[in-house]
Amino acid sequence: MTKHDALTDVTGLRVGHARVEGPGALSGTTVVLAPPGGAVAAVDVRGGGPGTRETDALDPRNVVQRIEAVVLTGGSAYGLESAAGVMAWLEEQGRGVRVGPDPSHVVPVVPAACVFDLGRGGDFTARPSAATGRAAVEAAAATGLHARVETGAVGAGTGAVVGGLKGGVGTASTVLESGVTVAALVVVNAVGAAVDPETGALYGTYFQGRAAYPDPAVHEAARQRLAEARASHAPPPLNTTLAVVATDADLTRAQAQKLAGTAHDGIARAIRPVHLLNDGDTVFALATGEREMAPEAGPLALNDILAAGADTVTRAIVRAVLETAGGIEGPGGDFPAYRELYGPDLSPDSR
User: Which member of 164, 188, 197, 310 lies 3.0 to 4.6 Å from 266 by CB, making a disulfide possible if both were Cys?
Assistant: First the structure.
């Protein structure tokens, strides 16, 4: 682990959240802001129901070399409008692809992806707008280097749910023996379960070697409570898990593309099932290039970064579930928090 066990442990990355205001609103936007000059970026989209913006620009065969920000948002496809607010703010800063003789002649490329949370607070029309995106990027810009990242029911995770439980935002990081930092931020909003129904343990903890098994009586009570809650979901909640996995290594665009793809393994370890037809699971990869890859290590040096990317995504998902303190109950359904069902002894602070 590094400074805060967070995405911002990759030097230069900043994270900001904003929430949709008003009665019946349960949605928001999260922005990952790259350092000035941008970061190498890639994306890997899986499942049959993605909602994205500007992802084609990240194809290594295309012209855009670096991007300034990534937007993760609620509001389904409507919420992709939040990226326009981020784009406008970046233009004001003169940040983007230079397209004219004047330094102000830029076009910011702002890739975005959305989760489905429409109507979860009761108001189907309460979803992120350009103003929400602007508020989130301004919040990111106002933070310092290596700032703590707020987790749980914030930003794009405000109305997120997972397998009938309250979902949210989680983050994690690690430093490799080479000194390279790898980190992830995840918005967990899935029909698939994060909890093993047989034991009550989080699937992701099996791969961390630190699974915590609830008392059988507590688990049985939790199962009954969750079954009652699921009966209130009509129709069943739609889904999508979003992630940004980042490193300070000097990756090529093709290497970043590989990192985005293998990071999906981290989702598959922690949520079951994933990548179905009504999933829009999307992973962005960012590389700031602050640390050169050792040339003597050869191309296989990337393997350590790929493995760490998947591992940090898994840990970020576990933290998203554990660090979401309270559930939601209202017109959009009843979604208790894991900690409400199993108690605070299973929180990350108690381990």
Answer: 310
